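EI: anyone free to look at a 65-residue chain?
SC: sure, send it
EI:
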Amino acid sequence: MPKLKTHQATAKRVRFTGRSRLLKRKAGQDHFNARESGVTTMRKRRDVSLHPADAKAARRLAPYR
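SC: here you go
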């Protein structure tokens, strides 16, 4: 069976932890942040774990990570 190719867009957006959980960066932090409250701005800086259904799809797209 041939090797599977890694989907590079997924590999660049998702990070695998030591326990093989998947983390992604919170969306919407490029601009228009001046009107957000400080709490919202801090929440946008943190990584969030993927929903289990999305994590399953990402594992299929990045099999060797």
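EI: Residues 19-61 form one domain.
SC: 👍
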